[in-house]
Design brief:
heterodimer; B: 345 residues; globular
């Protein structure tokens, strides 16, 4: 068993009461005592319905959100203890792919600008000059199944699946070890989803990436992930090997989810 | 024999874009009878929503144009009815549910008022739904409509329906709003219900409830349903029949078990091979290469031919007709016979 790359220890997040037009709004407990550990090189799936706290947890891992209690450790180091410079260096190693490839690419930037931007931001860590950055961008594009001829194009010239490939290329630009995938295929058609999922599998095998895969699509999680955690109303309900969770769910919530999952039963 | 509830024959729809005329529906044939739930599946841009919208005449024409074909609702061609008569059918005989429950409810009005309005409008055409005497006063009718609204809300599984009528849409969750829309679609007792991706925006647990409700409605009221979705899993669990669309054509249609267990058209097979299932090994999914054709200049003959592994020269010669596979199961592929043989090898 390999070392944990990411540890989430007893993390809670409460969004405080705000003063509103009439009195105060109630406190929201977005996460409650969540503990998880993601091992190096595995695909870890986080499944939950809307409002379950998936996004809050993801934002906490990226340190865009400070947990109310608990710690998040990357390779054993507490994110909250890092200095700004250390945090910046760490961000090169943790990247994210967002749900909607139509909304997450700047329409006024060329693909070259999009893919080289992370290398520019992390130039101190990566030490690439302009020519090297463009070379690497071309490499990344061919890695995700596009080509150097696409560098000068703009996002609107691409289909949804191609855009998501560009997003993956951008996420890989800073050479990350951990990739957060926030519903990367839910805006795509199934035939395109299949291509993107296959790409993710190949990249993981080639580059030894660790995936933290957030989704509400159980079929996709079952396909891609080694281990799964179910989160419901901010609490971790069940965690375990993917096959075990789907074949022998222990919690009532997991049973309900696997039952409710619409499925095409292909004859054997 | 009475005409079927809905019969679409050889429907051609074109739209004008900057590039020219796009053939967005290219000869749709579909018959829906009472008690049937037809799943209309396909990927973005295949024309499944346009087929649904065409039935309720919600495609603005012009600029769109129906070049050929008919949409017969109980024998009457909707495309040739005056708009006033179509409006009389819409919402009353033909109910509609759309994908996004948030944008289809008016945030400024209480749920009850919105349901009552629909009930009163529907009662203009069929006073019997309010269950009060003809010529009853406005107040009596409004009270009856209010009662009906509460009853419908209760039937779609919203607890304390009577009290919830006073709530505004923002006080309801997404799943509950979708149920309000279903109640609203059913209040005029439609004979045909068109549900365009009714559960796509919802969580799986809520989705399961909504689909169960839809099935219950069909068996209770003997209506016909067209369920537009991109999720074959939803179709497999909910529908009696399925029509698979690709680039403006129905490429395969038939009873759901037939089509899913024995998909005959290469596109249906490709679609099913792309869905991750229990048995799928990691990295083994088959994505479909190539891209959806440009509908302004569609490929000649079979529109799927350029992406089809089995395509031969004859595929591009003419548009393949729907050929019988078994019983009601049809597929528009000239290589059906050969593909059957291939499978036995």
């Amino acid at each position: 068993m390999s070392d944990p790359i990411l540890q989430i220890e007893n993390v809670s997040k409460v969004y405080g009461a705000r003063r509103a037009l009439f009195g105060k709004t109630a406190e929201v407990q977005a996460l409650q005592d969540v503990s998880l550990s993601v091992r190096k090189g595995e695909s870890f799936g986080l499944v939950g319905e809307s409002g379950s706290g998936k996004t809050t947890l993801t934002r906490s891992i990226l340190h865009l959100e400070t947990p109310t209690a608990g710690r998040i450790l990357f390779e054993g180091r507490d994110l909250a203890q890092l200095s700004a410079a250390e945090m910046r260096r760490l961000r090169a190693r943790v990247q994210i792919v967002f749900q909607d490839p139509y909304a997450s690419l700047n329409p006024r930037m060329s693909v070259q600008d999009i893919v080289t931007e992370p290398m520019l931001i992390h130039r101190e860590t990566l030490g690439l000059d302009r020519r090297q950055r463009i070379e690497r961008a071309a490499e990344l594009l061919s890695l995700v199944g596009l080509g150097p001829q696409h560098l000068s194009r703009f996002p609107h010239e691409f289909s949804g699946g191609q855009r998501q490939r560009i997003c993956v290329a951008r996420a890989l630009a800073s050479g990350p070890e951990l990739l957060l995938l926030d519903e990367p295929t839910s805006a795509l058609d199934v035939s395109v989803q299949a291509q993107v999922l296959n790409l993710l599998c190949e990249l993981q095998d080639q580059l030894g990436l660790t995936y933290f895969f957030i989704s509400h699509d159980l079929a996709v999680v079952r396909y891609l992930c080694d281990r799964v955690a179910l989160i419901y109303r901010g609490e971790l309900v069940e965690e375990g090997e993917t096959d075990r969770i789907f074949d022998h769910p222990e919690s009532e919530y997991a049973r309900m989810l696997t039952r409710a999952m619409p499925e095409v039963r292909v004859p054997a | 024999m009475a005409p079927p509830l809905l019969s679409i024959r050889d429907l051609h729809l074109t739209m004008t874009s900057f590039e020219g005329e796009a053939h967005v529906l290219n000869g749709i044939d579909l018959t829906v009878r009472r008690g049937e739930i037809w799943g209309l599946v396909g990927e973005s841009g295949c024309g499944k929503s346009l087929t649904g919208l065409s039935i309720s005449r919600l495609v603005p024409a012009p600029p769109a144009a129906y070049k050929r074909g008919e949409i017969a609702f109980e024998g009457r061609d909707l495309l040739r009815l005056p708009m006033r008569e179509v409006q009389a059918l819409r919402g009353k005989r033909i109910g509609m549910i759309f994908q996004d429950p948030t944008t289809n409810l008016n945030p400024a009005y209480r749920i009850g008022e919105q349901l009552v309005d629909v009930a009163l409008a529907a009662a203009k055409h069929d006073p019997s739904i309010l269950d009060c005497e003809a010529g009853a006063g406005r107040r009596t009718r409004r009270r009856a409509a209010h009662r009906l609204a509460a009853e419908m809300l209760d039937r779609v599984g919203i607890p304390n329906a009577e009290e919830r009528l006073d709530n505004y849409p923002h006080e309801f969750s997404g799943g509950m709003r979708q149920r309000v829309l279903i109640a609203m679609a059913l209040i005029g007792r439609p004979d045909l219900l068109i549900a365009d991706e009714p559960t796509t925006a919802l969580d799986v647990s809520v989705q399961a409830q909504i689909l169960k409700l839809l099935k219950g409605t069909v068996s209770d009221h003997d209506i016909g349903v067209i369920l537009i979705t991109h999720n074959l899993g939803v179709v497999a669990e909910t529908c009696t029949h399925v029509a698979v669309m690709y680039a403006g054509n129905i490429v395969e249609r038939g009873p759901v078990a037939e089509v899913i267990n024995r998909p005959a058209h290469p596109y249906t097979r490709a679609l099913m091979a792309a869905i991750p299932t229990r048995a799928s090994q990691r990295g083994s999914l088959n994505g479909l290469g190539g891209a959806v054709p440009n509908l302004v200049t569609p490929p000649p003959g079979c529109r799927f031919a350029p992406r089809c592994a089995r395509a031969i020269a004859a595929c591009s010669a003419q548009q393949p007709p729907a050929l019988p596979v078994a019983g009601e199961h049809h597929a528009a592929c000239i290589r059906l016979a050969e593909s059957e043989e291939l499978e036995h090898v």
